[in-house]
Amino acid sequence: MKNKIAFYIRLSKEDGDNIESESIKNQRDILNSFLKSFHESFEYIDEYVDDGYSGSNFNRPAWKKLIEDINNKKINTIITKDLSRMGRDYICMGEYIERIFPENNIRFIAINDDIDTLKETPGLEFLQFKLVFNDYYLKDTSKKIRRVLKNKKERGKFLGKKAVYGYKKDKNDKYHLVIDKKVKNNVILIFNLIANGYSINDVCSILKEKKIKNPDSYIKGINKYDWCYKTIEEMIKNETYIGNITQGKRKKINYKSKKEIRIPIKDWIVVNNTHKPIISKELFIKSNEMLRRKKYIRNTNSYILKGLIRCSNCNHLMTMMFINNRRYVCCSRYLSCKKCVSNTINYDDLEIIVVKNINKLLRKYCLDKKNIDYLIKEKKFELIDKVSISKNKKIEIFYRFKV
Question: Which domain holds residue 176?
């Protein structure tokens, strides 16, 4: 049977690869030299290169394309420089070499490890040991990298992929933040509004009216002015704006998983005075105090129609919010992700309408006040199922009787 050969090449700093010895060129040269001395009938198909992808998993574009071509019967022989170039995960490597490849009649050759699955070469006898060692090497490298990164964070080096809104990375030092003068005044405006008693929803509306781009739109250079509640909240709590770096808020579950978990506040890495602040500490403290006060009012305020008011467009619950000390309800889906319309309506006006309707029904079905009081006390009926509000402020009240 003719060997339909594919080269697989991989390089990753994350695995602790020696860039010189494991370079793409170095691997390609070794593979080509091997092919020159290959005495069997073969057809060279292609090379598949994943540059900058870790061996801890197989979620790599070139590898996926290789597997796709294997499934389409384009390839039946894979050649790599060594086992670690294919991957370092012990479980996945064993699955491929001992089950997936044999079931699909795929020949696998790892040159430097003396492995050829067709010829039962000596390297196969030590396959399990080599796979375990490669996995251990990945774990040990991951641990060393985490130590290095932690040390940099403790020295106040900024390691984020992008700077927070209001800052940008220093061109001369990628670990240092400098103020982005283009949006500096926007940050000051947000903190001042919150400190002066405006709610986050008020601030979102003001920023939209002023046509101030949200952080994501600013980075991408597009004209979108809808601000997210969570974005403002996180900005107000972020000590970066007073010159401190706060890092280490999350960590990966382990060296093989991309999933992250939150770290307790007491374990965060905070380094003071690492860069120039945009706002003063006094303004930061005042803003956070006002934010907590607003949240307390918002969370502890109970109202009759709580949990009953829904948007007629998406059927999501309407959320209570405060604008200039007045109570309003608005579609929660609109507030969270702007994927609905702003069905905002004054809550107190709505409550009056609903109560009037309830009183009409009570007078219609209950003969006197004593009877009404008894029914309410004994909870003999449920008058309201839900209140639906449309974009044009049309109100529908749905009743459900228990009597």
Answer: 167-300
